[in-house]
Design brief:
Largest sheet: 2 strands, antiparallel
Strand content: under 5%
Strand order of the largest sheet: 1-2
Number of strands: 2
Order of helices and strands: HEEHHHHHHHHHHH
CATH architecture: Orthogonal Bundle
Shape: elongated
Number of domains: 1
CATH superfamily: MetI-like
CATH class: Mainly Alpha
Number of helices: 12
Length: about 300
């Protein structure tokens, strides 16, 4: 009976991170945030993403023009004081459409990575913790999904579900599920064999509590980095589906749909494709810089620390 306190003490999880493979005392979160923002690429990417987010959120304050309002007398108006980004073939204000379209693209991208992360992480945790026949079957299904080219899988799912923003989000999230599952499964198998997890199993702690309290916190670093990396890719794929007409349907503004509207008039009205393209590029660059910075901060081995 005297061994129970010792086992309970051993079952308490230390500050371990499989992604960084470091053990040490906990540091206050606010200090970690300040230290991370001093990273050049992370700070720059953070500023870009925050600036774009504030612009699209403040769209009703920055313009009072309805993004879908048509004016046949103001078609293909170049950038001016009245229309800072010009107008399109239907006389719609491009400044308004780009800002409101950014809401659609950025929110859709966020939902893609959130859905993919939740489902993929859950699948990876189950496969990595329980292993055996269950883990083998799950990971073989994951390998099967990974064998398909991503865009082909997205187009297949979209063709089955039909065009639309919601179906497009589901289609792209289906690509991310096996990616997250593969990452989390490998990290979970490592944590599963650590002494404190084995001690918790010996004490009879339920599998659900072990997964949620001991394993999940120690695989979250990899999940966070993967999420920031894939957020920009998800934005590109959401835009691609909108560009080919399988995403957002007219007249809803979205960066890919706006690019599609302007492709036929690129020599006549360059601003229709340039401005949404610039916003999309800045968003992708920003989240990629954030992802690179987080990877450096969460994995000191990359910088030789």
């Amino acid at each position: 009976m005297q061994l129970e306190p010792e086992l309970a003490k051993a079952a308490a999880p230390p500050t371990v991170d499989v992604f960084t493979e470091t053990i040490g005392p906990k540091v206050p979160r606010w200090r970690l945030v300040l230290r991370a923002l001093r990273h050049r690429s992370l700070g720059l990417g953070f500023l870009i993403v925050v600036a774009l987010t504030l612009l699209v959120i403040a769209a009703p304050l920055l313009t009072s023009i309805d993004p879908n309002a048509q004016d046949p007398m103001a078609t293909f108006v170049p950038p001016s004081a009245e229309h800072p980004m010009g107008t399109d073939a239907f006389g719609r204000d491009l400044f308004s459409r780009v800002l409101y379209g950014g809401r659609t693209t950025m929110l859709a991208s966020l939902f893609v990575v959130v859905i993919g992360a939740i489902i993929g992480t859950a699948v990876g945790l189950v496969a990595g913790y329980f292993g055996g026949a269950l883990g083998f079957v799950i990971m073989r299904l994951v390998d099967l999904l990974l064998a398909f080219p991503g865009i082909l899988l997205a187009l297949t799912v979209t063709a089955i579900l039909g065009p639309g923003l919601f179906n497009g989000v589901i289609a792209i999230a289906a690509i991310l599920v096996p990616v997250y599952a593969r990452l989390v499964e490998g990290a979970t198998r490592e944590v599963r064999n650590l002494p404190y997890v084995e001690a918790a199993v010996t004490l009879g702690v339920s599998s659900r509590k072990i997964i949620l309290w001991h394993i999940l916190p120690n695989v979250m670093s990899g999940v966070i980095v993967l999420t920031t990396t894939w957020l920009g890719i998800a934005a590109l794929w959401v835009t691609a589906l909108g560009f080919i007409g399988l995403g957002v349907q007219p007249p809803t503004p979205e960066w890919g749909a706006i690019l599609n509207d302007g492709q036929n008039y690129i020599t006549l009205a360059w601003w229709i494709t340039v401005f949404p393209g610039v916003f999309l590029s800045l968003f992708v660059i920003g989240v990629n810089l954030v992802g690179d910075g987080l990877r450096d901060e969460l994995d000191p081995t990359l910088t030789g620390q």
